[in-house]
């Protein structure tokens, strides 16, 4: 003789066969939390039907999947926002304008011109013209006869003035190199810290996903056990 006894569900007040009865204390915590959220009066001493429990199991799995998709969307959005804001140290370093005084600009121009082939060729032409004009045109009776004392004086003065000016430019270039090295260090340090943060976030995300997957596997195993129990009955 078949057992036709029924029970009343605590969440829907509908009657179900006794064989589909599930006590609240046997429901897994995440599923129980969803039920209590919809029905605050539900407790571990109440009971529901397998069909109703399966609905909440499916709701839990769908919530997990939608949450993961939302998490990925939030990550993509944060990356896009960071690209739009462009607050990286690299952009700050590139946007910095170098302020030079008038003397520094003159020193840079003198150093650039003094270290070029234009200066060498033009100065050789000047010396050739100077010597040729005094020796051949003025026949060593001009303003600077041989051995060209005035020319030697001019060359000595140019060398004496050019050397400290070039040193000024070189010192400023060394200062620029030091500042550039500091900025490179800042960029490398920031990159290292961001990589560490990314590793920590990935580890946390993996651990969170593993826990959620374990919960889902438990829910699926419970559903399979319920189906097997119904088949045996």
UniProtKB/TrEMBL annotation:
InterPro entries: DUF1003. Keywords: Membrane, Transmembrane, Transmembrane helix. This is DUF1003 domain-containing protein. The keyword Transmembrane applies. The chain crosses the membrane at residues 117-139, 145-168. It comes from Flavobacterium azizsancarii. The keyword Nuclease does not apply. Pfam families: DUF1003 (PF06210).
